[in-house]
Amino acid sequence: MSIWRNKPKNLGNLHQDKTGLLKHREWRGISDTLYDYYRWLITWKDMAVMVAKAPVSTVKGIYNYRWMASYLSAPAWIDRHTEGLRGTQLRITHLHFNGLVRPTTDMINYLLANDKHFHKHSKMSDRTVNVDEIFSSEIMAGFPNLKDNHVTTVPIFLSSMVDQNITPPYLDITESYGVPADVCPLPSAEAGVAINDDYPMLGKCSITCNMPCDGSVMNSAYIDRRFNIPTHVCNVPLRYNGEDVQEYALQEVKDVITFIEEQTGEKFDWDAFFSAMKKYNKQLEYEIQKWDINKTDYPQMTGATFWLYRLFYFHISGGMDDRFLKIDKKVNKLMMKGYEKREMCSKEMRHRAIVWSCPANYYTSLANWLENCWGVNVVMDMETMISYIMYDTEDKDAALTTFAKTLQRTTMRKHTKGGYQNVVDELWNIVDEYNADMVIMYDQISCKGMDGLVGIFDDQARERGIHFIWVPQDLMDPRTVSRRDMRENINKYMTTVMHEEPVDPTLVDFDDTLAW
Length: 516
Known about the structure:
Mean pLDDT: 92
Distance between the termini: 36 Å
Helix content: 40-55%
Strand order of the largest sheet: 2-1-3-4
Shape: globular
Number of strands: 8
Oligomer: single chain
Largest sheet: 4 strands, parallel
Radius of gyration: 22 Å
């Protein structure tokens, strides 16, 4: 039986105006509806377990931190990313999102249970090393008795994905503090959390870096001032393609290890590190297998789940969390079965698209809307194709050099730094590899990085016969460019340039201003 016997239709009618809340759950046929509901219950179960582990700290967190309540909308966030899905892709997506929710609830629980705002004494606070959000965790595998805290990830980076309205108050706080309004809203919002004292206070020392941009470097000063603990800066080369910078990059990583050893009294455990990197390599093998399937005529994973899961485990897992490896094993088994059956991952695949540049945190599900409304399937995106270098698990310097190269190719950096070859040429290489006929180019209006390349991209797209859609967005601030504005930009291109009719007309225009 075809999974598209119960084809999604009139999906826009499922939502209440402005709030985007579901009037009722989507009917997907008996099997898929029951599976969807089962996974929805698992999400609520994981959230309930988080509260049960530390009920007093959780209540204090909700009462004291503005961002905390945003996580109550996580089930609605997942619903937006599973809308219209059937069969294999529905199951793959839910497995990935359960793999996001459970570790996140663990992270929140850890933060609140050790927060010095609420607890005078915390055993784990002095066993915690604070790091920047895009600093990968692999190096901490060498310190099995310590734990890393990606300081801004839970309070603002992830919460802004779940709830589009959480960042504006923090942006306003930063601007009232005297910071200009035209800077990138990501570091501006993170600074606002620090100014408002909304970061859980824990950590023995801190590792910061110069990634991905100057705004983040400036924001580090606010966070450093708020935590007031010893801080070490790891400087990552910008022009990273040449081997001539790797000796310097390796020394920077060694200095990080030395700093952590001096501050915590722990010694780097090479056996633990190599053991974790073997798991990291295995997970990377699963990841590349996903990419290879998406290059075929029967991709099994489109939409936004691809990059959301990849971004999360890339920074958080570090080869230390076996749960991600188990998820990948299940996902790839499902994926290969779907591919062997030649299942289509959407009811109508009109276009194969590549997403380039940084996506809007406040609208992570745009790719799902593209698929349901216009039949545009995103088969690859920039944030998925971050570092995929395997670790040497025997040679110490070779392994640390790989970690240094991984930092150089991390989220928001691999294809926005490093020169013309990484920013422009690689896009067209990926378009060819994935047989794409369309590029969705995010135009982050508060970032000046891509402004000088607009004409180059447009000219080269015309030469290659590739449809190129610029989508303005403001990363963390939906007041500047709303979700509706982003969709309208695409609607105009699809109707005036492509002369196409929507797959689902009820999704062409709707107001979700008040939605999470």
